[in-house]
Every structure is written in C-alpha cells, then in structure tokens.
Amino acid sequence: MNKLFVPAFAALALAATPVVAQPTDILNASYDIARELFDAENAAYTASGATVTVNQSHAGSSAQARAILEGLQADVVTFNQVTDVERLVEGGFVSDDWQTEFPNNAAPFYSFPSFLVRVGNPKNINDWGDLASEGVQVIFPNPKTSGNGRYTYLAARAWANEEYAGDEAQVEAYLTKLFSNVPVFETGGRAATTAFTERQLGDVLVTFEAETLAVTKLLGDDQYQPVTPSVSFLSEFPVAIVDKVVDARGSRDVAKAYLDFLFTPEGQEVAAQNFHRVQEETVAAAHAETFPEIRLVTVEDEFGGWDQVASEHFADGGLLDKVFINQ
Amino acid sequence: MAKPAHPAGEIVLIGLAFVFAALVLAVPIALIFAFAFREGAAVYFANIFERNTLHAIWLTVLTAIVVVPINIAVGAALAWLVTRFRFRGRQLLISAIELPAAMSPIVAGVTYLFLYGAQGLFGPALQTAGIQVMFTPLAIILVSLFVTAPFAARELIPLMSQQGTEDEEAALSLGANGWQMFWLVTLPNIRWALVYGAVLTNARVMGEFGAVSVVSGTIRGQTNTLPLQINLLFNDFNVTGAFAAASTLTLIAVATLLIKSVLESRQHA
C-alpha cells in the first residue's frame, strides 16, 4: 500500500510543480523603417537553429515606447534612438544599466543622416551647405515627431558649427534657411521616403544612409543616387530587454539569446546586407565597398550627451524652435 | 396630357451624373483591381495568401462577426426604449447614442487607451488580475463596438418614431404576449432599417483605421486588421500587395451591398 502510495504522491507533486518552460515566441517592438531588416534578421535567426518565433511590431520608436508603457507585451525593443529606451528606463520597464548588457553600448548597428537625390544629381547637392541654397527643396521628417528628423537636425547643426566656427548667429541663419526649404514635414521616416519617391516631392531626401541605399537598390539606380556628405551624426540603433515583460513571461533567456544573435557575425552580416553599418571587423571589411568613408560626430563630443540635447535643443522654446519657424 | 420626352437639359444633367459617378466611384475602384492584378493573378493570390495578410483578413472578419450582432441587438433595444417610452433623460440618452458617431475615431482610440492601458483607469487592476486587454484582438473588438454603436439605432429611431405604437397595441389587445408582438409585429416593420444598420455597421467595423491603430499595437500576424495591413504594405513599398489586400476589403463591401439589394428586391417582388 505504502509502496504504491509514494510514487503516486511523487507523480502528483511533480504534476503540481510549475514547469519552467520558456515561451516559444517573443515580441520585438521596433522602429518604423526597420521592417525589411528584421524580416531578414529573423529569417537568419531561424536558419541558425533557433526555435523561437519572433513577432514584429513596427511604428515610430517614440510611439512604441509609449505603447510599451501602456502595456504592449514586447520582450525586446530595437529602437533607433537612445532617448526612447530611456523613457522605458524612467517607466521602470528597462534597467538603467541596459547599455552595458550588450557590446557597443547595446547598439548592434548604426547609420547616420545621408542624402538621396534624383539620378544625375541635377541640383548638384554634395554637402549640408547645398541644402540651404535658393531653389532647393529638401525632404526630411518632422524633428518634433521623428527620431530620424532629430538626427538630421543635429547632423546639419554639427556641420554648421564647424563651417561657421561656432558662430551661433550664422549657424541659426543656415538652419532657418534649411528648414524653410522643406515643403512638407512628414511625421515619420518612411512617410518622408514615400513623399520623395511616390509623390516625387523635393530635390533631396535626408534620411538614414541605410534607407538611401535600400531605396536605391529597390527602386533602381537609374532613378536615384545616394550622396554621402562630408560629415554626419552617428546614429546608433540601441537594443534592450524589457525586464518587466520578460520577468512576467519568463522569457528572459530567449529574449537575450535573440538580441545576442544580432551581435554575432551572422547577425551582423544580415544587417550589413540590409545597408546598416556594423562594428564587427570582418563583416565591416567585407562590405567596405558598399559604405563610403565618412567622418561621424557623436552626441557626447558635439552636444554633451542626450540629456543636454533634450533640454537645450528639443524642449519647447529650445534651439530647434528658433530655426523651425515654418512648423 | 402626354408626358414630354426628356428635354435636352435633362439628358445633359443625367449624362453628367453618370460621368461624375464614373470619375468619382468607378475609376478608383477599377484602379484598385488594376493595381492588384498588375503583376498577374499568381502574384495576386500569393499576396492574398501571404500569412500576415490572411491573418489580417481573418481578424477583420472575426471583429465584424462579434461586433455587428451585438450592436444590432443593442441598437434595437435602445431604439425601442427611446421610441416606445417617455422618461426623464430620454433626450440625453438619444444624444449619448449619437456621441461616438460625432467624435473622431482617434479620440475613441486614445480614450480606450486611457481606460485599459497599463497607466489607465482600469489598466492596473486588470494587470493585477493577469488580464491583457490593450494591444490584443479584444481591444480591437471593444473599440469597434464603441465606434459603431450608433449606426443601428440611428437607422431605427426615426423609423420607429414615425411608425408609432398602433400596430403593437393592436397585437397586445388581440392577446399577443411580449415576444409574439416583437417577432410578429415589431420586427417585420423594422427589418429593412435593421438590415441597413447592419450593412453600415459592418462597413465601418471592417474599414475602421484611426481608433484601431491606437489600440492594436500593430503586431504582424496578430493584431493587424486589414486597413492596418494595407497601410503597412503600402509603407513597405509593396504597392501590389497593398492593393491586393485592399481588393479583398472592396470585394467584401460589394458583397454586402449585393446581399442587401437582393434582400430588398425580394421584399418588393
């Protein structure tokens, strides 16, 4: 009797123990124009033997941060701006040392604002100064709503700071001219691209180099050509684990394994094939022909960090508002 | 007195009406199908049967299957209440029914976010209970219920006030009970308004973009409805795919209208 009872009891106890199984799917909340990139990354991740399904949600990265604060169950974020991850840190969703959890400040790839012009470059646009010329129409997304647009503003200002040796009046005059050359400010990066390509607005599109190269490949180099300016602004695309979600779902290990993959040579190769620049040396060397040389300034060197940028430039009544008079 | 033949002016005006209808209605609809099929039928069906588009079609149909019957039933009950009874606050109730139709869908979406979002009114309690509403199909159904709540009642209230209560009182005086009166007298009187209310509700549920986009979370293959999927495909430079998805939405709309016309013609036959 007792001999029968013990195994039965053990079986019951086993059944009652919660099985610590990792979920078989995770959600990656990502920015607007990263759809093609993560379609490719996720396919490569599956091909590498991973069994987890990675679902994708794409929208402006500020909108995604807000959705996560409101309960969107994203296990990981892959954003195009550090400030949007910081909003999750403030909300208690991401630990404040997230940038040390992965290499390169947790940025598996980077890009920078660059130019796309119509083939033959009829307006002869080669650098930031040309964007403020009389009769040139420039398309870039609204810096008030788009990280892409904020990067463009900062890149143009970095160029002007050097060009005018820090003379703030001249810098502001240049930026005011640049902004008044924009016929319409779209709310996001992809909308700006479709305004330039589908609606044929403007002479030059300013957006991430990744987008300019992808558009040229997709729509044909008989129609568009990328132009690399002399200097631009380093735009790192950070990734982070959403602690609050993975702790609730028990998905931390699969979430981390997925983000780790983005830093492996395979993951980096996929990013480079999709026109994102990477740090991994052998992959970067293999794709050197795709990516022209460029000097990139960083937010720390040029503007004293993201906090200072937020308060000096992007706050209401800040430096952006002084030059963005046609908003 | 013989009727005069169509005078020239009348013919010109009728002709103009046809030209206008062709330009404003027929050409855009034809264009949807022209673009959807511009790379051939094989690509068209590959686009329709793409996993995420197929899911978007299913989610949109599911939402309509849940929302339309509920809003028809609630609309009929509300219309019954405000046309058959006089009570304090009746006018207020009639205005309240109209409210969702008068307000921008994006406001409806944001309102639901503030109700059920994690930082919203009910969000924290729901989270403690382990119930996820926001960014799930449930949120899409809830917000669709709200946005389309007035459509059935709006069709029914004018008709039911005009018809009055005489038929129903006659039925009751002849010994019918409440259910008999409803099924045999009220329902036949209002069925065309009900069908029209259902057509309008269905069209709006399937086409709603603004409110749904706020509460959806736009997770591919999970919470993208057809309008969201069309927008996404268009932004992905997949114009053919976007129009293929749009064609299914158009076909559903045409089918709904056809069903309505067939039912109507049977009625008058």
UniProtKB/TrEMBL annotation, chain A:
<dbReference type="Pfam" id="PF13531">
    <property type="entry name" value="SBP_bac_11"/>
</dbReference>
<keyword id="KW-0574">Periplasm</keyword>
<protein>
    <submittedName>
        <fullName>Sulfate ABC transporter substrate-binding protein</fullName>
    </submittedName>
</protein>
<comment type="similarity">
    <text>Belongs to the prokaryotic sulfate-binding protein family.</text>
</comment>
<dbReference type="GO" id="GO:0042597">
    <property type="term" value="C:periplasmic space"/>
</dbReference>
<keyword id="KW-0813">Transport</keyword>
<dbReference type="GO" id="GO:1902358">
    <property type="term" value="P:sulfate transmembrane transport"/>
</dbReference>
<feature type="signal peptide">
    <location>
        <begin position="1"/>
        <end position="21"/>
    </location>
</feature>
<dbReference type="InterPro" id="IPR005669">
    <property type="entry name" value="Thiosulph/SO4-bd"/>
</dbReference>
<dbReference type="GO" id="GO:0140104">
    <property type="term" value="F:molecular carrier activity"/>
</dbReference>
<keyword id="KW-0732">Signal</keyword>
UniProtKB/TrEMBL annotation, chain B:
<keyword id="KW-1133">Transmembrane helix</keyword>
<feature type="transmembrane region" description="Helical">
    <location>
        <begin position="12"/>
        <end position="37"/>
    </location>
</feature>
<dbReference type="InterPro" id="IPR000515">
    <property type="entry name" value="MetI-like"/>
</dbReference>
<keyword id="KW-0813">Transport</keyword>
<dbReference type="InterPro" id="IPR035906">
    <property type="entry name" value="MetI-like_sf"/>
</dbReference>
<keyword id="KW-0764">Sulfate transport</keyword>
<comment type="subunit">
    <text>The complex is composed of two ATP-binding proteins (CysA), two transmembrane proteins (CysT and CysW) and a solute-binding protein (CysP).</text>
</comment>
<feature type="transmembrane region" description="Helical">
    <location>
        <begin position="135"/>
        <end position="153"/>
    </location>
</feature>
<dbReference type="Pfam" id="PF00528">
    <property type="entry name" value="BPD_transp_1"/>
</dbReference>
<feature type="transmembrane region" description="Helical">
    <location>
        <begin position="92"/>
        <end position="115"/>
    </location>
</feature>
<protein>
    <submittedName>
        <fullName>Sulfate ABC transporter permease subunit CysW</fullName>
    </submittedName>
</protein>
<dbReference type="InterPro" id="IPR011866">
    <property type="entry name" value="CysW_permease"/>
</dbReference>
<comment type="function">
    <text>Part of the ABC transporter complex CysAWTP (TC 3.A.1.6.1) involved in sulfate/thiosulfate import. Probably responsible for the translocation of the substrate across the membrane.</text>
</comment>
<feature type="transmembrane region" description="Helical">
    <location>
        <begin position="239"/>
        <end position="259"/>
    </location>
</feature>
<dbReference type="GO" id="GO:0015419">
    <property type="term" value="F:ABC-type sulfate transporter activity"/>
</dbReference>
<dbReference type="GO" id="GO:0005886">
    <property type="term" value="C:plasma membrane"/>
</dbReference>
<keyword id="KW-0472">Membrane</keyword>
<dbReference type="InterPro" id="IPR005667">
    <property type="entry name" value="Sulph_transpt2"/>
</dbReference>
<keyword id="KW-0812">Transmembrane</keyword>
<feature type="domain" description="ABC transmembrane type-1">
    <location>
        <begin position="57"/>
        <end position="264"/>
    </location>
</feature>
<feature type="transmembrane region" description="Helical">
    <location>
        <begin position="57"/>
        <end position="80"/>
    </location>
</feature>
